[in-house]
C-alpha cells in the first residue's frame, strides 16, 4: 500500500541535503572517506529505514547508505535516521537503476535487498532488483568476494532470484527458507519484517558472493 503523501516530506529532504545526498555521483569513490569507514554496506529499497538504521547502531565503524526512490517514504526514514545522531549513515533518494553512476568499481562491500517489490507480473520482471540487468551493475560495484544479502517473504521472487544469480555466475554461500526459525541478533528486524513473522510467514534469505 502506497503511503499517503506527507506535505513536509519534500521540504524536509531538501533542508537536510547533507544527509540526503541529492547528487550522489559527486561522491563516487569517496563514500568511505565521507563516512569515515573501511566497510560500506548499501541497502537498496530501504523503505522507512528500520533495517539500515538499526544496523548502523550495532557497529559505528561500518558505513551504511540507504537507497529509497519513493521520496515520501524516504523522508520518514531520513527523519528517524537523523534523530539517532549516528554519523555512519546517509541516504540516496533516487531510482537504483542509476546505481552504477554513484559508486566506483569495487567500492561496496555488501549490498542488501530486503523485501524488494516482487513485481509479480512476468512482463515486469526486469524491474526486479534481483534481475540479471541489476546483478551486472552490482557486480562491478562490489569488491571481489563482496556479498549480496537478500531477504524476502515472497517465495516466487526468491525462486526467481536463485535462478537469476546462478545464471549470472554468482556463488550461493548461504540459503534459508525459514531464516527466523532461529534467533539472529546480528541481523536487525524491521517493523515490516516483524509483521510477517507475527503471521507465521517464513522469511527467505540467501547470501550470494561476487567472484571476479
Domain tally: 1
The separation of the N and C termini measures 39 Å
Secondary-structure element pattern, one letter each: HEHEHEHEEHEHEHE
Percentage of β-strand residues:
15-25%
Under the CATH scheme, the architecture is 3-Layer(aba) Sandwich
Give me the Rg, rounded. 16 Å
Helix content: 25-40%
Spatial sequence of strands, sheet with the most strands: 1-4-3-2-5-6-8-7
| CATH level 4 superfamily | Vaccinia Virus protein VP39
Number of strands: 8
Kindly provide the name of the CATH class.
Answer: Alpha Beta
- Which class of secondary structure composition applies to the elements? alpha/beta
Globally, the shape reads globular
Kindly report the CATH topology. Answer: Rossmann fold
Please state the average pLDDT score: 96
List the helices and strands and how they pair.
Elements: H1 9-15, E1 20-21, H2 31-35, E2 39-44, H3 50-58, E3 62-67, H4 71-84, E4 89-92, E5 108-114, H5 132-141, E6 142-152, H6 155-167, E7 171-176, H7 191-198, E8 204-209
Helix pairs in contact: 1-4
Describe this structure in words.
The protein is of the alpha/beta class. The chain has a single domain, classed as Rossmann fold (3-Layer(aba) Sandwich). The chain contains seven helices and eight strands, in the order αβαβαβαββαβαβαβ. α1 (9-15) packs across α4 (71-84).
Descriptive labels:
globular; 23% strand; single chain; alpha/beta; Rossmann fold; 212 residues
Summarize the structure.
This protein is an alpha/beta fold and 212 residues long. 31% of the residues lie in helices and 23% in strands.
Amino acid at each position: 500500500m502506497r503511503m499517503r503523501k506527507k506535505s513536509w516530506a519534500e521540504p524536509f529532504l531538501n533542508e537536510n541535503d547533507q544527509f540526503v545526498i541529492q547528487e550522489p555521483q559527486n561522491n563516487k569513490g569517496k563514500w568511505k572517506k565521507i563516512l569515515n569507514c573501511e566497510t560500506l554496506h548499501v541497502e537498496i529499497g530501504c523503505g522507512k529505514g528500520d533495517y539500515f538504521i538499526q544496523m548502523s547502531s550495532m557497529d559505528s565503524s561500518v558505513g551504511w547508505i540507504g537507497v529509497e526512490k519513493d521520496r515520501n517514504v524516504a523522508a520518514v526514514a531520513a527523519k528517524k535516521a537523523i534523530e539517532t545522531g549516528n554519523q555512519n549513515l546517509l541516504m540516496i533518494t533516487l531510482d537504483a537503476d542509476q546505481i552504477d553512476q554513484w559508486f566506483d568499481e569495487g567500492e561496496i562491500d555488501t549490498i542488501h535487498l530486503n523485501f524488494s517489490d516482487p513485481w509479480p507480473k512476468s512482463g515486469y520482471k526486469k524491474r526486479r532488483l534481483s534481475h540479471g540487468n541489476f546483478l551486472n551493475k552490482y557486480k562491478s560495484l562490489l569488491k571481489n568476494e563482496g556479498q549480496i544479502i537478500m531477504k524476502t517473504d515472497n517465495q516466487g521472487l526468491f525462486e526467481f532470484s536463485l535462478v537469476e544469480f546462478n545464471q549470472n555466475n554468482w556463488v550461493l554461500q548461504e540459503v534459508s527458507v525459514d531464516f527466523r526459525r532461529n534467533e539472529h541478533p546480528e541481523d536487525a528486524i524491521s517493523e515490516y519484517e516483524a509483521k510477517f513473522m507475527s503471521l507465521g510467514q517464513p522469511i527467505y534469505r540467501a547470501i550470494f558472493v561476487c567472484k571476479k
